What does this fold into?
Amino acid sequence: MSQYTTGELAKECGITVRTVQFYDQKGILNPSALTEGGRRLYSGEDLKRMKIICFLRDTGLSLDTISRLLKEEDSGSVISVLLEQQEQVLQEEIGERRKKLDRLAELKNGLKSVPSFSIESIGDIATLMESKKKLHAMHRNMLLAGIPVSALQLFSIFLWIFKGIWWPFILWVAVAVLYGVFASRYYYRHTAYICPQCHEVFKPAFKEALFAKHTPKTRKLTCVKCSRHGFCIETWGES
It folds into this structure.
């Protein structure tokens, strides 16, 4: 029958001698025998038990929980349920950490576009990150609303070219104008802009916003606070 000293048991399980001694003091795993000199000796069953303890510790279970589990008559069933619960907890923690990593990545990418680093620039980026989902939802709604208009355009052109029926095209022009007015007003109501100089979030006049030069994420506007005229960053700003 195999017997292991404290050092040998620790080496087999990849832990320290102090850990083995600590588990003995806590009554989690006591040695099967003692030598005449008082040295701890562990059996093969003790080795298996220690490996189970180490495995359960690696899953994040506390020593008190492990100690109680090992004293249960049907410890296998209880451990199975606890492992499932622990798995769910760890999955939730992983999800939360992944969200934090994503936010850090967004912040780093945002800082690359800022000429000079400042607390205010971090505030601008935080505002953009908060509004990103809402802006995406708005753009998606506008795209979905525009699909029927585009389909009507293709249908009317087809009828005009191949059938000589022109009036559906006139109907499409009327619908397109109405859609353009609706989309412009909808877009204006749900957007605001951040001035990169004073960091004010403001909403320009409708006419200025409509005819201003723009990129997918910026628009050339005059800040209502500092009067700077230049490209401002689009963000969510519901009226």
